[in-house]
Design goal:
Chain lengths: 373, 335
C-alpha cells in the first residue's frame, strides 16, 4: 500500500504554505512520515528533519531536501472600504494575479484579486496595463474597514485557492487509489510540493546504504533561508535537492518556431547550473550513468535560470549537491501543470542512484576526508 | 613570469570548469608545499607550514573566468546561450568562442550581423546565438549545458601583456611565484586557488570555511582610472605598482591588514598604490565573512579593460605584487 495516493497529493498541494508560515504543510508531512523514520525533529527556523538510518556499518549521511513553502502575498494595509493592499512573498509576477481566487489568513477566508471591468475606464494606458503588486487590491467581501479588520490582520498570508485535478478524459479523483502512472495533473504549489512528495516516496522505499536525512525546508522562495540554516547543522556528505521546476515548452509569439530545452513528459530534469549554484560534476555524472543503466528518461533543465535550496545548503561547507526536478509549466502562478510520468521517473532515478552512491562518497575529496585540513 | 602567465591565460576555465587551470597550477606548487588538497568544490589549496609562531594566513586567487553556456539548441544547429558571470554584450558580436572539447564557433545576432552592427542599439541576450558551423541539429559536437570562453589569445607587448582571463590568472601567477620565492615565514600559509569567483565567490566561501584563517588576502585584478574620461574616476594607474585595497563594493579592508601591507611595501621600498574600486569585488569579501569573521584585505594587479578579451596588465605591477606579498609573509604579524 503506497502513501502516494491521489488523495495524498491533493491534500499536500492544497495545503497553504506561505514562506515562514508552513505549519499546515509541516504537520501533514510529519504525520505522514513518522512511521517511516527513526527520528523526527523541527529546528528553530521551522525546517522539518527526518532521519532514516542506513544499512552500512559506518554509514555516510546524505541529505535530501524539498521545500514546503510556496510563493504568496501578504496583507500590508486595510483601506477604508475594507479592501486589502498586499505585497509579495517570493517571486510573483502580477500578470498572473488579476482576477484570481485566493484564500486569506489562518481561516482561509475567500478573496478575489480585484480587476476593474473595462466599462469604467476607457483609457487603454490604464486598463490594458498590468499594475504593480503594490497597486493590487484584494476583496474579501467586507462591508467596511471595521468589518474587514474583524476578519483579517495586517501580515496575514494570501494564497492561491486552486483545486488539485487529474487532467484528460477521466478526471475523477479516487482519494485512496495510487497516483496514475501516466497523465497530467494541475494544481497549486507544485513548486515544491512535488519535491516533497518525491521525498516522501523515497522515505517509503528506504532503507538505503547511507543515513538518509530528509529535510523539508522553510522559506526557500524568499531566499533559501531554511536551507542555509540546515546546511550548517546537517554535516552531510552529499545532498540532493528535489524540485518542481520550470518547463519551457510553451507556445511562443504567433508564427515563431520555438526550441524548448525541457518538455513535459520527457523525463525528470537534471540541473547542470542555475543562477545560484553549479551542480557537483561527479554527482551529476552518477545520475546520468544511473539513468542510462536503468533506461530511465531524463532531460536537462534550461541552464542558468532560477535558483534552489542547493545553493543555500552547500553555500558554506561546499557539500556536493545535485538537483532533480519534476518539470512543471507555469510555476509561481495560480496553477501549474505536470506530467505524472516525469514525477514517477524522478523517483525511480533517485532510488536507483541511491543504491550505489556510497562508493562515490569515499574518495579523498569527500567532505569527511577534508574536515581536518 | 610570462612563462607562468601565458599557459595560465591559454587554459580553459569558465566558472565551474577550472580543471585545466587547476592541473597546471597543481604541478607547479606541489614541490613547494607541505600539503596540497583539492576540496569538493574544486578549490586547490597548498599549505606551507610556518614555525608555529605565526598566524594562519589564507591567500586566494581565483582560477575561473567569465564565459558562455548553451541553453537551447535549434533545429538549424544554431545554439542559444547565456552568460557565466558578467560578460559585457558589447564584446560579443563577431567574436569567436572555444568549448571545452575544442569546438570553435562564432557569435552572431538575429536580424543579420551585417545589419545589426550598424544599429545603435544593443539587442538583449535572447537575440544572440553561436554558430559552430553545423548544417543541422543532428551530430552537433556540443549541446545544452556546455560552456565556452571567448577566443582570446595571449599577446606579449613587452613590458605589458594583453590576454583574456588575466582576471584572475594574473593573481594565480602571483601566488605561484610568491610560493616559489618565499624562503621562510613564521606563518601557516594556505595558498588557495579558488573556483567560481565570477559567479559570486562561491569557492572562496567554502574554502575559507574549511581553512578558518586568521587573516585572508585576495590577489585579483582591479580596474584603473588612467584611460580617457573614465565614468568612474579611480586613482589606480597601470604600471604604478601593485594596489593595496582599501575598499570595493563588497569589502572594506580591515585597517590592520591594509596597514601591515603598507608597512611591508615601505620597508622593502616597493612602489604601491592605494585602491578604492567603485565597481566589483573579490574573494576577500567571502573570506571576511567566513565563520566568526576574518581579518581581510587584498593585493590587486591593476588591469585595463577587465572582462573583455583584451585585458591588459603591466609586468612591473605583477612583479611588485610578488615582492609585496613575499615581504608581507616573511614578517611577523604586527602585535
Amino acid at each position: 500500500m503506497t502513501l502516494l495516493t491521489q488523495g495524498f497529493l491533493k491534500q499536500l498541494t492544497e495545503l497553504p504554505g506561505a514562506p515562514g508560515d508552513e505549519g499546515p504543510v509541516r504537520d501533514f508531512l510529519a504525520r505522514t512520515i513518522r512511521p517511516l523514520v527513526d527520528d523526527l525533529w523541527v529546528d528553530h527556523i521551522g525546517n522539518l528533519f527526518a532521519l532514516r538510518r542506513g544499512t552500512d556499518l559506518e554509514p555516510r549521511r546524505v541529505a535530501v531536501l524539498a521545500h514546503m513553502d510556496e510563493v504568496a502575498l501578504f496583507v500590508t494595509e486595510i483601506d477604508d472600504q475594507g479592501f486589502l493592499k498586499v505585497a509579495a512573498s517570493g517571486g510573483v509576477n502580477p500578470r498572473t494575479l488579476l482576477g484570481k481566487v485566493v484564500q486569506v489568513g489562518p481561516e482561509h477566508l475567500p478573496g478575489i484579486i480585484l480587476v476593474p471591468p473595462d466599462h469604467f475606464n476607457r483609457d487603454p494606458e490604464v486598463y490594458r496595463k498590468v499594475p504593480e503588486i503594490d497597486a493590487l487590491v484584494v476583496d474579501i467581501g467586507a462591508t467596511d474597514k471595521e468589518n474587514a479588520r474583524a476578519r483579517v490582520k495586517v501580515g496575514h498570508r494570501i494564497l492561491f485557492q486552486t483545486p488539485f485535478r487529474l487532467m484528460g478524459v477521466d478526471t475523477t479523483l479516487h482519494a485512496d487509489a495510487p497516483l496514475p502512472i501516466q497523465g497530467r495533473i494541475s494544481g497549486k504549489a507544485f513548486d515544491d510540493r512535488l519535491g516533497c512528495a518525491t521525498l516522501v516516496a523515497l522515505l517509503e522505499q528506504a532503507p538505503y546504504p547511507f543515513d538518509l536525512l530528509a529535510v523539508f525546508t522553510t522559506q526557500e522562495e524568499v531566499g533559501l533561508r531554511g536551507a542555509l540554516v540546515a546546511g550548517i547543522k546537517a554535516q552531510a556528505d552529499a545532498a540532493f535537492v528535489l524540485e518542481g521546476t520550470v518547463c519551457d515548452d510553451l507556445p511562443g509569439p504567433p508564427g515563431e518556431k520555438r526550441f524548448p530545452t525541457t518538455r513535459l513528459g520527457n523525463g525528470p530534469t537534471l540541473t547542470q547550473r542555475d543562477r545560484s549554484w553549479i551542480v557537483h560534476p561527479p554527482l551529476l555524472r552518477h545520475l546520468l550513468r544511473t539513468a542510462q543503466k536503468h533506461n530511465i528518461p531524463y532531460q536537462f533543465k534550461h541552464p542558468n535560470v532560477g535558483g534552489t535550496d542547493a545553493s543555500g545548503f552547500a553555500r558554506y561547507q561546499g557539500v556536493p549537491v545535485a538537483i532533480v526536478s519534476t518539470p512543471c509549466r507555469y510555476i509561481h502562478g495560480p496553477v501549474s501543470v505536470a506530467d505524472l510520468s516525469d514525477f514517477h521517473n524522478g523517483i525511480r532515478l533517485l532510488s536507483a542512484a541511491f543504491a550505489d552512491l556510497p562508493s562515490l562518497l569515499a574518495g579523498e575529496t569527500s567532505p569527511a576526508a577534508l574536515r581536518d585540513f | 613570469m610570462k612563462e607562468l602567465l601565458q599557459p595560465l591565460c591559454d587554459a580553459f576555465g569558465p566558472a565551474g570548469f577550472e580543471d585545466e587551470v587547476r592541473e597546471l597550477i597543481r604541478e607547479w606548487i606541489e614541490p613547494h608545499c607541505d600539503e596540497v588538497r583539492i576540496d569538493t568544490m574544486g578549490n586547490l589549496v597548498g599549505l606551507r607550514r610556518g614555525n608555529g609562531k605565526g598566524r594562519r594566513i589564507m591567500l586566494a586567487a581565483h582560477m575561473d573566468e567569465i564565459g558562455l553556456i548553451i541553453t537551447q539548441v535549434e533545429d538549424s544547429g544554431l545554439l542559444r546561450f547565456s552568460q557565466i558571470g558578467v560578460v559585457p554584450l558589447k564584446t560579443l558580436l563577431g567574436m569567436r568562442v572555444r568549448f571545452a572539447n575544442g569546438t570553435l564557433g562564432v557569435i552572431s545576432l538575429e536580424g543579420g550581423a551585417e545589419v545589426e552592427i550598424l544599429s545603435r542599439e544593443l539587442p538583449d541576450m535572447g537575440k544572440w546565438f553561436v554558430d559552430v558551423g553545423a548544417r543541422e541539429r543532428e551530430g552537433l559536437p556540443v549541446g545544452v549545458g556546455d560552456v565556452a570562453t571567448l577566443f582570446r589569445p595571449f599577446a606579449d607587448l613587452g613590458e605589458r601583456v594583453v590576454a583574456g582571463g588575466l582576471d584572475d590568472r594574473a593573481g594565480c601567477a602571483v601566488l605561484v611565484e610568491t610560493l616559489r620565492r618565499l624562503e621562510s615565514s613564521p606563518h601557516d600559509i594556505y595558498f588557495a586557488f579558488t573556483v567560481q569567483e565570477e559567479v559570486g565567490s562561491r569557492g572562496a566561501t567554502t574554502a575559507a570555511y574549511m581553512i578558518e584563517p586568521d587573516i585572508g588576502i585576495a590577489v585579483d585584478v582591479t580596474s584603473t582610472g588612467d584611460t580617457p574620461r573614465p565614468k568612474q574616476p579611480m586613482a589606480v594607474r597601470l604600471g604604478a605598482g601593485p594596489a593595496i585595497k582599501v575598499a570595493d563594493r563588497g569589502l572594506i579592508s580591515h585597517p590592520r591588514v591594509r596597514e601591515a601591507l603598507v608597512q611591508a611595501a615601505e620597508a622593502e621600498q616597493i612602489p604601491y598604490q592605494l585602491e578604492v574600486l567603485p565597481l566589483g569585488s573579490t574573494d576577500a569579501q567571502a573570506m571576511q565573512r567566513a565563520r566568526g569573521g576574518v581579518l581581510a584585505g587584498a593585493v590587486s594587479v591593476p588591469c585595463r579593460y577587465i572582462h573583455t578579451p583584451g585585458e591588459m596588465i603591466d609586468m612591473h605591477d605583477l612583479e611588485g605584487a610578488v615582492r609585496l606579498l613575499t615581504a608581507f609573509l616573511a614578517r611577523p604579524w604586527p602585535a
